[in-house]
Amino acid sequence: MRSNIFKKNVEFVESFNSFGDRSYKLAINHFADRTKDELKAYATGHNDPVDLKSHVATSFKYESVSEVPDSMDWREKGAVTEIKGQGACGKSIFNTTYLEQILMLWELKI
């Protein structure tokens, strides 16, 4: 199966590059044996459709906000971490996001 996917993708790349009116060219890389769905899942971190009904929204009341500054730079507060390459995490991208939020709240002592 992988070899068939690879062959189809090579054919696509060669066909695309055969047209001289393109401003760029495609090349074979480490994603050449992946299907479109696999590439989409890799790029977005979603392997399954999201069930929005399972997510519960928290309530926010504007009245509970006392003082809000005109602007805030989270970097000055030490609450922004460096950019991380998540690779092929799949669903664990959500765990990474949650962990980053926890680290930010810990740093801010909220």
UniProtKB/TrEMBL annotation:
<dbReference type="GO" id="GO:0006508">
    <property type="term" value="P:proteolysis"/>
</dbReference>
<dbReference type="GO" id="GO:0008234">
    <property type="term" value="F:cysteine-type peptidase activity"/>
</dbReference>
<protein>
    <submittedName>
        <fullName>Ananain protein</fullName>
        <ecNumber>3.4.22.31</ecNumber>
    </submittedName>
</protein>
<dbReference type="InterPro" id="IPR000668">
    <property type="entry name" value="Peptidase_C1A_C"/>
</dbReference>
<dbReference type="Pfam" id="PF00112">
    <property type="entry name" value="Peptidase_C1"/>
</dbReference>
<dbReference type="InterPro" id="IPR038765">
    <property type="entry name" value="Papain-like_cys_pep_sf"/>
</dbReference>
<dbReference type="Pfam" id="PF08246">
    <property type="entry name" value="Inhibitor_I29"/>
</dbReference>
<feature type="domain" description="Peptidase C1A papain C-terminal">
    <location>
        <begin position="68"/>
        <end position="91"/>
    </location>
</feature>
<feature type="domain" description="Cathepsin propeptide inhibitor">
    <location>
        <begin position="2"/>
        <end position="39"/>
    </location>
</feature>
<dbReference type="InterPro" id="IPR013201">
    <property type="entry name" value="Prot_inhib_I29"/>
</dbReference>
<keyword id="KW-0378">Hydrolase</keyword>
